[in-house]
Structures are given as C-alpha cells and as structure tokens.
Design brief:
Layout: E1 4-12, H1 16-24, H2 29-32, E2 36-46, E3 52-62, E4 65-76, E5 81-88, E6 91-103, E7 106-117, H3 120-128, H4 130-154
Antiparallel strand pairs: 1-7, 2-3, 3-4, 4-5, 5-6, 6-7
Length: 155
Amino acid sequence: MRRTTIEAERILPYAPADLCRLVGDVRAYPQFIPWLQSLRVTKEEPRDAGGWEGVAEAIVGWKHVTERFATSVRCEPAKGEVDVALVSGPFHALDNSWRFEPHVKGARVRFSISYQFKNPVLQALVGANRNKLAARIMAEFEGEARRRLVQQVSQ
C-alpha cells in the first residue's frame, strides 16, 4: 500500500502571517471542520512571533468510522509554515504542511498532506475521494479566514 498525497493551492487576500496563525490555531478546528469531533493540545511550547510547537490529539469521524490520533505540530508565522507529523494513531504515516508566501493579492497558500492508513479499506475510501477532500479542506479554511480575518480588519 502506498501513501496518498493531497495538494491544494490558493491565492487569498490576507497577510501570510495571519493565515499561518489561523491554521496554527488547532484548538479552533472542531468549530469549523465538520469531521473533527474533538481536538486537544496535550503539549505546547511557545515560539517566536506567536508561533508554537507541541502535540495535539484528535478524534475524527466519517459516518460509522471514528478514529483517534496524535500529531506533533509546529507553527511559525514569521516563516509562514505549519507542519504536522504523526505521533500515534490509525496511520502508518502522516505528514501535513501549509506554506504561506506573500503575493500581490495577499498570500499564496500551499497545502499538502501525505498519509497511509493502517486499514486498507479506509485508505481506499479516503484515497478515492482525495480531490473532494482537498477542495473541502481548503474551503473550510477559506471560510474561517473570511470569518476571522475580515472581522479583524473591520474592528
């Protein structure tokens, strides 16, 4: 069984560091990512410019399937980077990265996730829907950026 990779890229009208902090705010994910049932940060160490590094545990669910996993998270707004890697869970492998670069219209956002489930049925199911999943992930974050970052500008 091979890893599945999902990638997406968008140009968004917000500052790269603001988008990076939004993606790094993993505690808020259950509020806007529908399949994320819960998430808690179990270890957190501050970094420069509002960044952090630590471990987060999540419970995700799709229809009748529920899985629990833990990841290491590194968020560095000054560099425009958020990286996530597997600590434990239903995966053989999991790596996720977000990159935020300045663009004349705001920020270029690049999202990539590479994973391999231990369960081949789950791997096939998620792999078969990877294009929809990439679009859905990006849409959820775009919506949250509109909600949060437009509010910041108008305050």
